[in-house]
Design goal:
Protein name: S-methyl-5'-thioadenosine phosphorylase
Family: Belongs to the PNP/MTAP phosphorylase family. MTAP subfamily.
Order of helices and strands: EEEEHEEHEHEHEHHH
CATH topology: Rossmann fold
Number of strands: 9
Structural class: alpha/beta
Strand order of the largest sheet: 5-8-7-6-9
Largest sheet: 5 strands, mixed, barrel
Bound molecules: the ligand CSC[C@H]1O[C@H](OP(=O)(O)O)[C@H](O)[C@@H]1O, adenine
Radius of gyration: 18 Å
Catalytic activity: S-methyl-5'-thioadenosine + phosphate = 5-(methylsulfanyl)-alpha-D-ribose 1-phosphate + adenine
CATH superfamily: Nucleoside phosphorylase domain
Distance between the termini: 20 Å
Helix content: 25-40%
EC number: 2.4.2.28
Keywords: Glycosyltransferase, Purine salvage, Transferase
Length: about 290
C-alpha cells in the first residue's frame, strides 16, 4: 500500500517548506469544513499533506477546531500516517522550553468536544490503551534527533479544554497525576485518528512551564509563540527528514492502528443509520 504522510501543524506552525509541486487543496467532508485548505505535495518523493490545525491566521480556538473534518480530510486525501506537531507546557523540570516530547499517553480534561465519528445508528468502540503509533513515533523521534533536537519519549499529555490557561492549583494537581506536558488539542485529534485507522504520532514542542514552577512566571501567548518561532526551522527540518525514514511501500502497522475498526463496530447491519454510514465512507469504509 502506498504510504502518505499527513502533517498537522499546531500553534505557530501554519505552513511547511520544501514540498515539491505543492498546492493548497480544498477538501469537502461530510463533517464540515476542515480548519483550512490542505497543502499537498511531495517531500523526498513521498506524498505529503499539511494542514494547519487552527487555520492560517489562527482562526480556530482549541474548542472550535473541526477535528472530525480535519481527520476525515486527511484520510480522504489518502493519508495513512499523521504526524501532529503541537505546542505544550511542561509539567516537569527536565522538559525545558525548546525540547521536543514524543507523547504516547493522554489524560482527557476536555468537556466541549464530540468524542467520536460514531454514534446512534453505528456504534463503535476502538481501543485507546495505546493511543499513538509506536512505529511512526519512533521515526518522528529519530528525525527530530537527526535534526539535533533534544527529544524526550514516553510522555503523558494532559488535554485541557481551554482557551484560558490552567490555574496554579490545576497545574500542580496535573503534576501529581503523572502528566508530563499540557495542551488543549492533542487528545481530541488522537482519538479520532485511531477511529479513522490512521497511524498517529504526536511530537510536542515545549514552550513554557505552565504556571506551577516557582522560578518561572505564568505562561502567556507571547512566550509560547516566541519559543515556537525560535524553533520553527528545527520543526520544519524534522518534518522534512521524516519521509526519507518511511517506507513508501507501506507495510501494515505492527501495532494494528490501520485495523482498529476490525472488531469495533457493535451495531447490527440491519440497524445501522444509512445517513451516518454514508458520512463514515472515508473514515470507516474499509469495514462498512
Ligand atoms: C498559543 S498557546 C495555547 C494553544 O497552543 C497549543 O496549540 P496546539 O496544540 O495546536 O499547538 C494549545 O493546545 C493551545 O491551543
Ligand atoms: N501551558 C500550556 N497550557 C496549555 N496549552 C499550552 N500550549 C502551550 N503551552 C500551554
Amino acid at each position: 500500500m502506498q504510504c502518505m504522510l499527513g502533517v498537522i501543524g499546531g500553534s505557530g506552525v501554519y505552513q511547511i517548506d520544501g514540498l515539491e509541486g505543492a498546492s493548497w487543496v480544498k477538501v469537502k467532508t461530510p463533517w464540515g469544513k476542515p480548519s483550512d485548505e490542505v497543502l499537498v505535495g511531495r517531500l523526498n518523493g513521498l506524498p505529503v499533506a499539511f494542514l494547519p490545525r487552527h487555520g492560517r491566521g489562527h482562526v480556530h480556538s482549541p474548542t472550535s477546531v473541526p477535528y472530525h473534518a480535519n481527520i476525515d480530510a486527511l484520510k480522504r486525501l489518502g493519508c495513512t500516517d499523521i504526524l501532529a506537531v503541537s505546542a505544550v507546557g511542561s509539567l516537569r523540570e527536565d522538559y525545558e522550553p525548546g525540547h521536543f516530547v514524543l507523547v504516547d499517553q493522554f489524560i482527557d480534561r476536555t468537556t466541549q468536544r464530540a468524542p467520536s465519528f460514531f454514534g446512534p445508528g453505528c456504534v463503535a468502540h476502538v481501543s485507546l490503551a495505546d493511543p499513538t503509533c509506536p512505529r511512526l513515533g519512533a521515526l518522528a523521534a529519530q528525525a527530530a534527533r537527526a535534526e539535533g533536537l533534544t527529544v524526550h519519549t514516553g510522555a503523558t499529555y494532559l488535554s485541557m479544554e481551554g482557551p484560558q490557561f490552567s490555574t496554579r492549583a490545576e497545574s500542580r494537581m496535573y503534576r501529581t497525576w503523572g502528566a508530563d506536558v499540557i495542551g488543549m488539542t492533542g487528545f481530541s485529534e488522537a482519538r479520532l485518528a485511531r477511529e479513522a485507522e490512521l497511524c498517529y504520532a504526536s511530537l510536542a514542542m515545549v514552550t513554557d512551564y505552565d504556571c506551577w514552577h516557582d522560578s518561572h512566571g505564568a505562561v502567556d501567548v507571547a512566550q509560547v509563540i516566541a519559543v515556537v518561532q525560535a524553533n520553527a526551522a528545527a520543526a520544519r527540518g524534522l518534518v522534512a527528514r521524516l519521509p526519507a525514514l518511511m517506507d513508501p511501500d507501506r507495510q501494515p502497522c505492527p501495532h494494528g492502528c490501520d485495523r482498529a475498526l476490525t472488531r469495533a463496530i457493535m451495531t447490527a447491519p440491519d440497524k445501522r443509520d444509512p445517513d451516518l454510514i454514508a458520512k463514515l465512507d472515508a473514515v470507516a469504509g474499509r469495514v462498512l
